[in-house]
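thought: fold this chain, then report.
action: predict
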Amino acid sequence: MGSLIQYASGDLPQPFPERLRAFITNSQAVVDLRRYFGIGMPPSEAPFTGSRFEHLAGGGDRPGIADRFAAEDLVAVQTLSVTVPASVALDLLEGRLGVQLSGLLHVIPTDIDMVDAEADILAEGSPADQAWHLLCDQYGVDWVIAGKLLARKRPQLLPVYDNVVRCALGRPRPSFWLALHAALRADDRALHRQSLELRQIAGVPETVSALRVCDVAVWMGHRAEEHACPR
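observation:
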């Protein structure tokens, strides 16, 4: 399994911030977020299961559980259409993998948004990057599943990054995490403010992170265009 930096390599036909901004500022994004989270929708139209990703069982970053994986975290990841292999799930809950990740999670902040974090918190070799490598390199976890597991535990700091989002935004250098961090902080944090405004206009609860708003806007927008995104 390659590294996060390897997966996040490649050139983009247009700058990353502009790609992201196009999704966040699109008027359809308000409709998409309301549809995804079931806001103002008729009872016959259920929200997407992913709308429960952050909130299920009180959230993966709540006190007392923020530094360890629990069964509800594995269910939360399933709401995003992936399943942790049974052997890995057992190791997360009862084995050495869970112990190793708990040690790393303990030093990853729970109370900071990506936009407020220093870049070294997300950089290669950081505890977050080590956790990603541990899952992918040592335990053979798919990179999408690894990212979603970590996003469940640190939803304000670590984004969901899957095949649809990668198809929409590309694989920026030196990594998706750092590219997103830089984009959100650029121009006096304009994109971050626009994400918060989008959340407010759509009526999405404030407990949904700005990162998740970005992810849903991109995922829904790109998915609607019916691109043949590679797996």
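thought: worth noting. Residues 176-202 form the longest helix (27 residues).
final: tokens above.
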